[in-house]
Amino acid sequence: MKISILTLFPEMFEGFLNTSIIKKARLKELVEIECIDIRSFSTNKHKRVDDYPFGGGQGLVMAVQPVVDALKSVKMDDSFVLLSSPRGQVFNQAKARSLSQKDHIIFICGHYEGLDERITHYVDEEISIGDFILTGGELASMVVTDAVVRLLDGVIRESSHQDESFEQARLEYPQYTRPEEIVGMRVPDVLLSGHHKNIEAYRLKESLRETWLRRPDLFLNQKLSKEETKVLIEVLQEELKKD
User: Fold this and answer.
1) pTM score, two decimals?
2) Is residue 227 a contact partner of residue 215, using CB atoms and an 8 Å limit?
3) Which fold has domain 2-158?
4) What is the residue extent of each domain of the chain?
5) How far is the C-alpha of 163 from the C-alpha of 149, rounded, in Å?
């Protein structure tokens, strides 16, 4: 996979590209990530990339010419162009899975008060990482890139993904490590038992419990199996007793 990030601030990505999983994926040549400086494509003698909005208003708007020329410099027939935007669909794990199947993703990072609307005619999809406003699209592009790259074959063991939150349309079960007891809190005995079937049953139950207590909305678009339904009923009964 190749990811091209069009940005006014390529220096923001130095740490992101050279640490942790992203660095390892690049060193293994499982992904190629490049940052394209939009400003270098400006034909303005002062290298301006923005101007005042027609009709008045606060702030500045990114101009068409430098953004589109930067885009054309990297776009290929199989490129998929993303734009970070508050009006885009909210990014989730399913979208990360879908994007991980693309050969080439181009991410346009907006700035200032936004981009000239005509730029959107060159975009395949607008995407949002949540209902809040950032200074620019750079952080959004990092979030999407991280979520997508870790799903590529060979980056992380496939088994590591299977129980993660949102992979099964529910939250992950609680995790523990050594010591077995600290500040009066003990690891659940079942996790120390070595009984794999009981551990699996415990983790399913606690995953459903976490989802019900913290993100019950995740159940709205999920069809539970008979076993999951039975366990969830047990969870609800236990929670009702607590009340």
Assistant:
1) 0.87
2) no
3) Alpha/beta knot (3.40.1280)
4) 2-158, 163-242
5) 18
**33 vs 29: CA distance, rounded Å:** 10
| pLDDT tens digits for range 159-217 | 555 555 566 778 999 999 999 999 999 999 999 999 999 999 999 999 999 999 999 99
Do 94 and 42 meet the contact criterion of CB atoms below 8 Å apart? Answer: no
CATH 1.10.1270.20 for domain 163-242 = yes
- CA quadruple 82, 86, 90, 93: dihedral sign: positive
Calculated CA dihedral for residues 224, 230, 231, 233, nearest 10 degrees = 100
Residues 95, 55: Cα–Cα separation, whole Å: 36
Q: How many CB atoms lie within 10 A of CB 135?
A: 9
Q: Which two tokens stand for residue 210?
A: 């976490």
CB 17 within 8 A of CB 26: yes
Buried b (16+ CB within 10 A) or exposed e, 50-70: beeeeeeeeebbbbeebbbeb
Which pair of tokens denotes residue 152? 């590529």
Fold equal for 2-158 and 163-242: no
